[in-house]
Amino acid sequence: MCGGGGSPSTTGGGGGSPGGTTECDRIRLVEVVEAILRPDGSFDHRPVSTRNQYINLDYAPDHPEWGRRIRLRARVAWVSGANRSLAGQTVYWYFNAGGGNRAGLPASQRASFESEGGDRARTTSTADASGWTNVASFCPSTYAGDRFDVFATDNSGYTGGMAAGSYTVWRRLFWELDCMRRPDGAGTYSDRADTGRLEQHFQRLFIQLVRTGTDGSPAHRRMIKTTEAATWAPGVRDGTGAPRYFHLCLVDTVAAGPAQVTLTLTVTPTSNRFRLDCSQYLLERTNWLVRASYTTADGVTGTVPPGNFTLTEAGSPATGDDRFVLTVSVNGLGGDLTRLVRIEYTINNWTELSGVQSGQATLVGIRWRERHWRNTPGDIGNSTLNTMVHEPGHALGLTARKLPTGANNPNYYLIPGGPHCNALSNQCLMYEANSTSTTLCTNCTDCAKGRHLVSLPIRATDDY
Q1: Judging by beta carbons within 10 Å of its beta carbon (0-12, 13-18, 19+), is residue 164 exposed, middle or buried?
Q2: What is the pLDDT of residue 184?
Q3: Cβ neighbours, 10 Å, residue 266
Q4: Domain 23-170 maps to which CATH number in 3.20.14, 2.60.40, 1.10.10, 1.25.40?
């Protein structure tokens, strides 16, 4: 037996040396705990765990699963049971990376002990007199889905020991949904928002979505212009979570432009109503007419006053017959009005978009989808989900110019609207044109997993 306070005949470290260390000189691990840092700088202890680590959130004592730094401590004791001081005894820390972890990451993104980006695969901590070690910090990588098993051991060869937790890299984002009221007042566009599939899509990227705010069911507007999105969306927003926040708005129509288009029509005493299909023309109720002129059958010409035109809307995108109806009066015009009157008129014709990203907000136009895919209703949902992921994808830094390893992204390309992807025969949902695809290509998935997501928006040209 060893004495309680005596000195050992041979001083051993860690697990000792088999050739001459006595039982008095050997230590054993008693427990490994997570050290919860309190605001006053002290620590509480809790059992280590297997969990998701949300690396993009700010650490809080009540939420040690937030942040990239995991604080660990170990307690050792003499194998002999002696009660003498354990000050200076060493515990060795190491981790095993999961087999599916992303290889080739730069040092700043790899897992490390002690500091983020330190690229230290091992570390040590030293016990105090009672056997508790100082804190060993473990920082997982920034690549989503990477898993790490951490261990503490008294073996200087960094083998064996006790499990110190298993951690999988996740990120968390906050999102809000606002769905505009339908034009007929019968409900809103919320039936087109498949929130379950949206959350599943982000889960595959190891992003947990937390819904915030309320659906304000904003009043119907026939169109929201791209130049208005930045001021309209904040007016219906009440969610929190910035700067890790995005806002989805399902609206009637998203409009860009306009472009001036000149058309002609012929008015007769029995025909003065004309159809402009909504699949080709998008007009404002006001400010749609630029100018108009006429020529009668007997050669009289002149200008048609705006008051001679009446613009209404009829039909439904569900039946494919939604249209603007233009009624023209020739009252007050000169010349022979009993026969043909040829009218040439120029309009402001807006371009209908599938959606637009404006700051933290994604506006998704529903009327166009309900018209375009009315014969395949399931594709309305797929197309909507495409934009609900595509536009926030830009805020997440997709399509990125570089992959997380630093290699060039072969599918990265620019159009006037920004960076997009041409992988999967242009079926990656980050392609420039809307489709029914709900699939991210391998490279866009890689980019999404590599983003730290501490703050949105992220540019496609930003580093990881």
Answers
A1: buried
A2: 84
A3: 13
A4: 2.60.40
Question: Bridge partners of 289?
Answer: 347
State how far the Cα of 162 lies from the Cα of 32, in Å rounded to an integer: 7
Rounded CA separation 172/53 (Å): 10
Write phi, then psi, for 57 (nearest 5 degrees): -95, 160
H or E element that contains 74:
strand 70-78
**Can you give the pTM of this predicted structure?**
0.88
Which residues are 122's β-sheet partners?
94
- Which phi-psi region, left, alpha or beta, contains residue 114 (left: φ > 0; alpha: ψ -120 to 50)? left
pLDDT digits (tens, 9 = 90+) for 417-443: 789 999 999 999 999 999 999 999 999
Both structure tokens of 296: 């009668």
Phi, psi torsion values for 374, nearest 5 degrees: -65, -25
List the end-to-end C-alpha distance of the chain, in Å, as a whole number: 58
Tokens for 41? 């700088």
- Cα 70 to Cα 127, 138, 332, 454: the distances in Å are 19, 5, 82, 17
The pair of structure tokens assigned to 362 is: 């994604």
Q: Report the C-alpha gap between 36 and 45 in whole angstroms.
A: 6
Say how far apart CA 247 and CA 211 lie, in whole Å: 10
Residue count (the chain)? 464
pLDDT over 60 (residue 9): no
Q: Mean pLDDT in the chain? A: 93
Q: Are 74 and 66 in contact (CB under 8 A)?
A: no
Are 287 and 316 contacting, i.e. CB atoms less than 8 angstroms apart?
no
Cβ pair 427, 410 in contact under 8 A: no
State both tokens at 58.
Answer: 């700010």
CA 253, CA 331: separation in Å to the nearest integer? 35
Domain residue spans of the chain: 23-170, 257-353, 396-464
Band the pLDDT of 2: cuts 50, 70, 90.
Answer: low
Please answer whether residues 125 and 426 qualify as being in contact, where contact means their C-beta atoms are separated by less than 8 angstroms.
Answer: no
449 burial (CB, 10 Å; 0-12 / 13-18 / 19+) is buried
